[in-house]
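sorry for the late reply, my laptop died twice this morning and i had to redo everyting from scratch. anyway the thing you sent over, i finally got around to it. pasting the sequence first so we're on the same page, its 102 residues, then the predicted structure underneath. double check i copied it right bc i was rushing
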Amino acid sequence: MQQGLGYATALDVPFVFSSNGDGFLFHDRTGTFEPVEQTLSLDEFPSPDELWTHYKQWKSLETVDETLITGVFAVLACTCSQFREGSASSAAFSGFRGLCGL
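ok and here's the structure:
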């Protein structure tokens, strides 16, 4: 968890999860979950919608048009998937590689 928290701080990531294979330790850097650090079973794992709601609250994005935010991620996901083959043109998109986990 400590290593994950270090990365989360450096990358401004709101939620950190660690697993031992049986369950999860969840740390909420936003302070919008109570308690901030808790043990979760797989059934208690927060849904993407729940995490998104807490993220918007943390960043004060409740009134922002979500298409402005989610549209960017859709374009990035599409762009990343097009350059997974390692073609010559994919070198120009090396910045996206980290985002895609390549």
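The chain has four helices and three strands.
thats about all i looked at so far, will dig more tmrw
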